[in-house]
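Q: Here's a chain of 654 amino acids. Please give me its 3D structure as tokens.
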Amino acid sequence: MDSFLIALLIAYIISLLFHINPWLRLCWVACLIISFIGNYWHPIRIFWLTLPRDLKTTKLLPAKFFLYKCKRHNKSVPKVFKEIAFKYPNRVMFYYRDDVWTFAQIDNFSNRVTNCFLEMGYGKGDHVALMMDNRPEFVGLWLGLSKVGIISVLINTSQRMETLIHSLTVIKCRALIYEPEFANSIRDVINKVKNINPLMEYYIYSDHVIADDNRDIPSEPLHQLLDISSNKYLDTLYDINFGDTLFYIFTSGTTGLPKAAAIRHHRFLWMGALIRSTIGIGLRDNIYITLPLYHTNAGVVGIAQTVLFGTTVTLGRKFSATHFWDDCIRYKCTVAMYIGEICRYLLAQPDKPVDRQHNLRIMFGNGLRQNLWTDFKTRFNIKQIIEFYGSTEGNSGVANITGKVGACGFLPRCIPPWLCQLIFPVVVVKVDPNTREPVRDENGICVPVEMGEIGEIVGVVRGTDPSRAYASYHDSEATAKKIVRNVLAPGDVGYRSGDLMEMDELGYLYFRDRMGDTFRWKGENVSTTEVEAIIQKAVGLTDCAVFGVPIDNCEGKAGMVVIARLPNAPIDMKKLYKTLCHELPSYAVPVFVRLADNIAVTATYKLNKQGLEKIGFDPNVITDELYVLDKICESYVELTHRLYRQIQCGYVLL
């Protein structure tokens, strides 16, 4: 309260004591009210605008209560699924192409998996890798394995060579289950995998006759083994606990090769319940999922809705822009999942009558760009878009449940800070741009950002609360690097997301960038150090810098590499393209290549990636040789001024 307001208040009290003219007292009262409003109008306005939104955070309570009940009764995912399958045995669990799977059928299939692997000598604590595209049996396999405590390791089917070798061996798996489509990828690495893990067994799962060229991998036909296994239910579920590991999902983290994040039963239960209560998904809904099930979005958040709560899911083998709306209409879907790239590809399709003939009431996901949001919602008549933010291993998830264009979530503004930190301990902290470490006050506590500033989103870890837990990596050293201490108070512990957010005055959060040696492209996190190692192996031991560059109207950043040319050693662009496509996942192959005489370094002799990123891939600025990936020509071709304009205008989809 300022001195003018205090003076007015004192004057008014004196007027009451000395019976001064009532009209004068009235003027003083008016001045007092006007001054009060003037001083406190901004917080009053913020309170008024955010109160209805912040009250919606009470939607967390049903999810918290569900998790509390599961913890109290030591329920695991297969235990909850057993209850759902018993309650809705004939209800459709999955629509997949022309197939229909009921809960009873998936339950029976998963029981066959359990009995089959028990008979082959597998038991609790063993690890089995799954390398499969979307299909109901994918869920049935990890569900059946989990019934006896076998931990699945979900492999990204885009991985190749060194990355795939790492993923198959970083956790000592007893077996790999794969589909015939991925036999070539496995054939390329099987000798090195055998050298590291000679005891790994291979099982091929296919609903058709296996081609001769797949028989050189020593594999057992799993589908045949399951056909002769019993579907009898066993009491092994009671050996599986609330805090046990359900499966591993690979995430890039912020540096190096993919890291295996442990998804425990309580995390699967919490993430599924949280999204359900926040979005309002019900039994009458039918969720269309085309995102890969080896990722958290579809494999945990989406699949949990059917495994835990009985909602029907329509599975697409892979995303297809031409068939997306046809499938939504055919299967009468009411909810669909997205990532930003899906929305952009759908907008790039020609207008069709089916664009608005669907029954979708909600689309939820992440990565929808602010400049595409309104166009997407209007063109396809989507009633509600719910953007959320989270990570496989993190605990700093937020959601935009009000439809604020461009925001990925919010932090409450009406709730007092001490109470907000108690029930929703997520904060955006300032980060030193040079050291990438949190900025701290004189007491050593992290400093929150002011409105309009950009900082790192951090979630406080609370050991007694499974909803605030951090899904640790299989690698303990990698886990330790993600921990920060003294976030909100002395002695507390937080999870560093590595993601930079900007917060506006109403508390809405906007994703701005990734920290560390990663960038996001095609819905995947790309490790620059991993790509640099492959490129150096391909072109010789020369300097190269990999980083992400923004493209107009594209989500994330496209990969770009600057290579320092060696004297008298020309680079064959076609050979480079083939090598990178063979060695790297498709999303990690650089889109742009720049050949330079040398690469500038910083004062500490590090490659100046920030300077290179600012220049980007503009041929109007760059005089060096500049190339762009061309999948049709299967090579890198010269990036001309005309091609540059077409890319920036969206005429060329990358």
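Q: Can you summarize the key feature?
A: The longest helix spans residues 22-55.
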